[in-house]
Structure formats: C-alpha cells, structure tokens
Amino acid sequence: MIKETKQSVHSNKRTPLLLLALVILLTCFQSGLVAKEKTYPTLERGAEVFKQRCTLCHGSQGMGEGRIPLKIKSYPDTNIVNASKAKTKDDIHNTIVYGGLLEGIDKYMPPMGDELTWTEIESVAMFVFALRQDPEKHLALLRAKSDQTVSSSLGRDTYSARCVLCHGKNGLGDGRMSKIIKSPPPFNLTVSAVPAEYIKLIVSKGGKELGRSEQMPPWGDQLSEDEINAVTEYLISIRE
Ligand code: HEC
Ligand code: HEC
C-alpha cells in the first residue's frame, strides 16, 4: 500500500514535465525547427533537384550548356527547354526514370530511377515541364536555389550531387561517366594522397589549371567555400 502511494506521488510530479516537453516538441515541428522530409512534389524541390542533378549535362539555364556537352563534341543536344521527345509531364517523369533505356532517347541520358525518390523525380519533372511553359519565371526559381545555404551533411550531399557521376558512389572512380572519360579516368579518390589544400585547389579551379586532365571540371563558380571545404573533408574521410 505504502509503495503504491509513493509511486503515484512520483508520477504526479512528472506529468507536468512530460506535458511541457510534448508542447515544446509540437511547437518545434510546427515552426519547422525539426526538419520534416517533404513527401509531396513541389516546384521548389524540383528546382533544387535540377540544380544538383541535371545542370552538368542540361546546363544551368537548361539550354544544353552543361559542362559535359560543351567538352565532348559529339555529345547529343541537351537543350531541355526546346526539347520535344518527352512532351507531357508523365513523359518527362519516365525519361528521368528510364533515361537512355527508352527507345528514341540517347544512351547518355542516365536512368535515374534508382538514385532519386519518387518525390524528387516527380518534382523535377514538374519543374522541367513548367520551365518550358514559362522559362523566365522558373529560371528565377533556379537562381534563387543557388543562393540558398545547404544542410548539415554538406560534404556528403555535395559529393553525391556533383561528383558521383564520375568518381562513383564510393569514390572508386567508377561513376557512370567513367565509361566515356578514360585517359585519365576519374580518379579513385579512396587512394588519393594529396593534401587538403590541393583538393580545395583542384576542386575550385579544375584539372586543367593544375596541369591535370580538363575532364575534372572547375567548381569554383558553382560551389560555395563552405561546400568546397565540406566536400574536401568528406574526401579525406573516405580514404582507405
Ligand atoms: C550525364 C548527362 C545527363 C544528365 C546528368 C541528365 N541528362 Fe537528361 N538528357 C541527357 C541527354 C544526352 C539527353 C538527350 C537524349 C536524346 O536527345 O535522345 C537527355 C534528354 C533528357 C530529356 C528528354 C528531352 C526531350 O527531348 O524531351 C529529359 C526530359 C531529361 N533529359 C531530363 C533530365 C533531368 C530532369 C535530369 C536530372 C534529374 C537529367 N535529364 C540529367 C543527358 C543527361
Ligand atoms: C566529369 C567528370 C568529373 C566530375 C563530375 C568530377 N571529377 Fe574529379 N576528376 C575527374 C578526372 C577525370 C580526374 C583525374 C584528373 C587527372 O588525373 O588528371 C579527377 C580528379 C579529381 C581529384 C584529384 C585526386 C588526386 O588525388 O589527385 C580530386 C580531389 C577530385 N577529382 C575531386 C572531385 C570532386 C570533389 C568532385 C565534385 C565536386 C569531382 N571531382 C567531380 C573527373 C571528374
């Protein structure tokens, strides 16, 4: 009996504290302090995905002025604003999922169904569709994205958005583009031995400036200093 009384006194003391904690948590959620993963497609998210995953080939204006087509002469036209193979938003969605596996789509358009979530694919499909309807308005959205600061796992995020295509998911130099960039191939970053300062330099200025291959693009005008520092730390962390 005595024990029971003690217990109830105890829990009576705790209840208000628990309630308070709950209220604080709910307030944080509502004000967006606790990050909620958006599970529905938006144009904003689409612009973000486009900026990270598509500009290398389609260009930061979507006019096909990406780094890769500018470097490789025989590369197919990657202008996405005036393109007409994928007409509807659903066609665009499928092109992103299946890429060059689809009949009539060039093999250099990578199938991205495995790498992006449904929400990301649908968002970027909406974005491309909208970009064709009203280029000015949506290019402005894209530019706004470029100025935003990015999240905390900055190094890894920057790497997966910008470098995987050549250096591969685990840095082994076996990314998709390694099929066409061969001499030299994208560096196996897990066996890289250069100091951090050199990494920062080659990432911002590109290979050519340092007497290396021009296939290693300069990122200085696309990545912020924070992003370059973070991706440098990340590269050092994946060394063998
Ligand atoms: C490695 C380079 C590369 C990347 C990265 C890339 N694409 Fe492409 N994409 C291409 C090429 C090359 C074509 C041209 C295919 C053709 O004309 O047959 C293409 C074609 C397309 C088309 C069809 C254009 C039409 O004629 O209607 C769409 C839509 C498209 N890409 C969307 C995207 C989106 C969205 C992303 C980012 C999520 C993306 N692509 C990333 C290379 C790329
Ligand atoms: C279009 C393909 C491509 C992309 C994208 C790319 N790289 Fe490279 N990278 C290369 C190639 C090719 C080399 C080899 C250059 C050489 O050996 O002359 C290289 C070399 C490097 C090196 C030199 C390593 C060493 O030890 O000497 C670093 C560091 C590097 N890349 C980092 C990055 C980072 C970080 C990104 C993303 C922000 C990136 N790369 C994106 C193609 C690419």
From TrEMBL:
<dbReference type="InterPro" id="IPR050597">
    <property type="entry name" value="Cytochrome_c_Oxidase_Subunit"/>
</dbReference>
<dbReference type="InterPro" id="IPR036909">
    <property type="entry name" value="Cyt_c-like_dom_sf"/>
</dbReference>
<dbReference type="InterPro" id="IPR009056">
    <property type="entry name" value="Cyt_c-like_dom"/>
</dbReference>
<keyword id="KW-0408">Iron</keyword>
<keyword id="KW-0479">Metal-binding</keyword>
<feature type="domain" description="Cytochrome c">
    <location>
        <begin position="41"/>
        <end position="239"/>
    </location>
</feature>
<protein>
    <submittedName>
        <fullName>C-type cytochrome</fullName>
    </submittedName>
</protein>
<keyword id="KW-0349">Heme</keyword>
<dbReference type="Pfam" id="PF13442">
    <property type="entry name" value="Cytochrome_CBB3"/>
</dbReference>
